[in-house]
Amino acid sequence: MTNSTIDLMAEAKSRQSQTVDLRRRIHMLPELGNELPETKQVVLDAIAGLDLEVRESTQTSGVVATLRGGRPGKMILLRGDMDALPMQEETGLDYASKIDGRMHSCGHDAHTSMLATAAHMLCGHRDRLKGDIKFMFQPGEEGFKGAKIMLDEGIIAEGGEPDAVFGMHVDPRRATGIIGGREGNALAAADTYHIKIIGVGGHAARPHDSNDPVPVACHVVTALQTAVTRKFNVWDPIILTVGRIAAGTKSNIIPEFADMSITLRSFSDHARDLAERTICNIATKTAEAHDMTAEIKVVKGYPATVNDGAFVDLVESTVLKTFGQGAFARDADPRMGSEDFSYILQRYPGAFVFLGCAPKGVNPDGAPGNHSPYMMIDEDAMAMGAATHAAVAFEFLNGGVE
Fold first, then answer.
1. Cβ pair 14, 120 in contact under 8 A
2. Which of 8, 191, 200, 221 has the greatest CB tally within 10 Å of its CB?
3. Which residue is catalytic, options 83, 191, 212, 339?
4. pLDDT single digits (tens) 138-156
């Protein structure tokens, strides 16, 4: 490491076998939601014996472990999520999931392992740190709002609120050795709409005696897609997808109702609110125009993930100093996925970035992505991830590694 007495990447590599072992243990026993008793215990065992103040969430399986630096200063929070997804693993790996219908297909096993290794590394340099570090091991990212629950219960603020926060996500469609990020919007907000168009059922041979909701539902889909291109500013975009539409039980029966489910992705509160009004108006008024009614259920998901520009600059300079030129890529565009780290970034300045980990011998563009049953990572990338956590903490607290 240039002009420093600590080579964090070398340290991370020296701990690589432990990082990989921890990741594989978690990978084999995936747990869902906010209650992850086995994963939590694995994490507690992994950080046992370190000079940390460990606090356990009372509402989830979350853990916040605080490292007090050798000198007073600021505080940074580093986060790793722990939960898996409800899907069948198809990788064929020796350490594949042992639980049918569950898989760590989003890399949270790697996130947790990298953070645990970073905790070991930073504890070894406690006396050099000017300030404190919180290691947040968080459940419930995959739709269960684990970050928000932990924020609201106060466990993140307990013992001192962070001055900055940092999170990282593996990206198997980016080459190993490259970390990507951007200021401003990094990820989108995600909301779900469930709409039921209620008509009058009857015999398909006598449609005039019924009121068929199927063509009306089709009108709603067409009107929604038209609205996306005509009501929304192209520079403040949304993505609206009718992912499910269902009606009826038999070809000669006019159904009483038609159901549809919609996912909405947006980057601004303005577009998000306009989309809600538009969706509800189109569904309601289209149904009324055909003497029907529309029942609408709105399920608000995660807000947009918005990075602080100054902190992204800090991450970029830290990555380049630690790993050399070409190790950081400024992403031109945000992603339409969503993340509950967004709640933390609403409260505290910081950044959320992406760690390249394309499997060896696989073109990143063709690698199975996150949430794929075939998703795999280059485990060597985890050393870079652990070192990045440690380096960013040093940079924020100390202005670099001494």
1. no
2. 8
3. 83
4. 999 999 999 999 999 999 9
Is a pLDDT exceeding 60 seen at residue 186? yes
Which domain, by its residues, includes 245? 189-300
Q: What is the pTM of this model?
A: 0.94
Q: Does one domain contain both 365 and 387?
A: yes
Same domain, 131 and 269: no
Q: Helices (H) and strands (E) in the chain — how many of each? A: 10, 16
- The CATH number of the domain where 367 resides is what? 3.40.630.10
The yes-or-no answer on residue 83 being catalytic is yes
Contacts of 229 by beta carbon, 8 Å cutoff, 6+ apart: none
Query: Does the active-site annotation cover 269?
Result: no
pLDDT > 90: percent of the chain: 98
The answer to whether residues 85 and 207 belong to one domain is no
Residue 45 has pLDDT above 70, yes or no: yes
pLDDT per position as a tens digit, 99-110: 999 999 999 999
Length of the chain: 402
The C-alpha angle with vertex 185 and arms to 379 and 9, in degrees rounded to 5, equals 30
* pLDDT of the residue at 401: 65
User: Distance (Å, rounded) from C-alpha 86 to C-alpha 106?
Assistant: 11
Number of domains within the chain: 2
Shared domain check, 194 and 177:
no
Catalytic residue, candidates 89, 141, 191, 340: 141
